[in-house]
Design brief:
The protein is mainly alpha-helical. It has one domain: Rossmann fold, CATH 3.40.50. About 55% of the residues lie in helices and about 10% in strands. It has 5 helices and 3 strands, in the order αβαβαααβ. The protein has helices spanning about 5-35, 55-75, 95-100, 105-110, 120-130, and strands at about 40-45, 80-90, 145. It has a 3-stranded parallel β-sheet with strand order 1-2-3, sandwiched between helices. The longest helix is centred in the N-terminal third of the chain and has 32 residues, at about 5-35.
């Protein structure tokens, strides 16, 4: 069957990104609501706010993560539980190297970032730590774009 493996990959992407977040929140919220506090940080992507050529399933899955997170934030706001999203842009990882394929394509991705550089895994981790912390105690339902300005364009 032509395209069969692509369909499996697409469904795997959607299941991981959407079903994985849904089931994680289900179990996290069960505990956090009972204790009257907590902070959930889901991970999206720049594609959660914008589309991308050849990335319709991935973009749809990340839009779903953002929508579920906003709905959960509204549903739990009065209970002491916060739900937010960190949405990274291009991050300098082995996966980005695989995705881009060549040094020229990676350079083109980098050139498309207003800050003219890729993010680092540490910068994404620090963003997650911040938004999960008490320093962000009045933030819920937010999408924190950590992408060097890509979504400001």
């Amino acid at each position: 069957m032509e395209g069969g493996s692509e369909r499996v990959d697409e469904m795997g992407t959607f299941d991981t990104n959407v079903l994985g977040v849904l089931l994680s929140m289900k179990h996290e919220l069960r505990i956090m609501l009972a204790q009257g506090s907590g902070s959930i940080v889901n991970v999206s992507s720049t594609f959660g706010q914008r589309g991308g050529i050849g990335a319709s399933i991935y973009a749809a899955s990340k839009h779903a993560v953002e929508g579920m997170s906003k709905a959960a934030a509204l549903e739990t706001a009065a209970s002491g539980v916060r739900v937010n999203v960190v949405a990274p842009g291009p991050v300098d990882t082995d996966l980005l190297d695989q995705f881009s394929g060549t040094a020229e394509r990676k350079a083109a991705l980098t050139a498309g970032v207003p800050m003219k550089r890729l993010g680092t895994p540490a910068e994404i981790a620090e963003s997650i730590v911040f938004i999960a912390s008490n320093k962000a105690a009045f933030i819920t339902g937010a999408i924190l774009s950590v992408n060097g300005g890509k979504t400001a364009m």
